[in-house]
Amino acid sequence: MSGRVNATFAVTKVRLDENGHVTQVDTRGDSVAGEEPLEIRVGGQTLTTTMRTPGHDVELAHGFLHSEGHIEKVSDVRGARYCAGASVDGRNPYNLLDVELANPHALTLADLRLTTTTSACGVCGTSSIEALMKQSRYEIPQVPVDPGVVAKLPEALKREQKQFRKTGGIHAAGAFTLDGEPVVVREDVGRHNAADKVIGNLLMEGKLPASDLILVMSSRASFELVNKAAMAGFGMLVAVSAASSLAVTTARETGMALVGFARGDRFNLYSGQLSRDTLPGRS
């Protein structure tokens, strides 16, 4: 384990009445989502540093490399190991993960990222939708949107969010069947990290392309998440919050179904088509 998934701090909780007056002050221990840097190296050279919640780091590295177009299949990675032992430059060695590629020349100096990726935003691997379309390995399947399935996905994802129940401050991504059954769910302070962990798991389990799966996010839908979903071959992305304009444009260009504000009995369909047998007037 590379670090703590969550930590406990003394927190002062304050309650106000309807007039804004303090009615209660209580200090108690509270769980907070863990956040530590993970430096991903390839062949000993730094590729990127991302702020993540410790855990499933090898999946995260696989998912990141796949989403960025550096690897195609699990056999493209010969191994991944922490730089364990003595601390490196005073840093936790379990926050340094070195990946060995089967082809050591697959990455060039131009691929190396020497900046830190925050947990709030990843770094887009493409500068345009056209570049994404050229880079994608899989054809995006046309997945009809079943409202009954979409309606139950946010709650199904939430049931798998163990760390969210403890901390209230962590994102989740999950791959679900077209019937709404969970295949794999991962949590992280960074929504892009959570998605990479899911994609990395699917890659390592031989389940890509994800043409028969739905990617569900506890966050908003950004271009980067649509990008990652497209690279993995998902035909549908469902988010519990809003979608950005570039996310909508990208989903429409790639043919991916994109759902936002999926909350109980309502959702917004930004891209894709509803299942014909679910339309009003049809039985």
From TrEMBL:
Q: Which Pfam families match?
A: FdhD-NarQ
Q: What is its main location?
A: cytoplasm
Single Gene Ontology MF annotation: sulfur carrier activity
The family database entries (SUPFAM superfamilies) matched by this protein are listed as:
Cytidine deaminase-like
* GO CC annotation: cytoplasm
- Show the Gene3D superfamilies listed in the entry: 3.10.20.10, Cytidine Deaminase, domain 2 (3.40.140.10)
Q: Keywords, A to Z?
A: Cytoplasm, Molybdenum cofactor biosynthesis, Transferase
| Family matches, as InterPro entries | Cytidine_deaminase-like (IPR016193), FdhD (IPR003786)
Q: Does the keyword Transferase apply?
A: yes
Binding of Mo-bis(molybdopterin guanine dinucleotide), residues: F261, A262, R263, G264, D265, R266
Gene Ontology biological process terms in this record: Mo-molybdopterin cofactor biosynthetic process
Q: Which residues form a coiled coil?
A: none
Q: Which HAMAP family match?
A: FdhD (MF_00187)
Q: What does this protein do?
A: Required for formate dehydrogenase (FDH) activity. Acts as a sulfur carrier protein that transfers sulfur from IscS to the molybdenum cofactor prior to its insertion into FDH.
Tell me which family the UniProt entry assigns to this protein.
Belongs to the FdhD family.
**Can you name this protein?**
Sulfur carrier protein FdhD
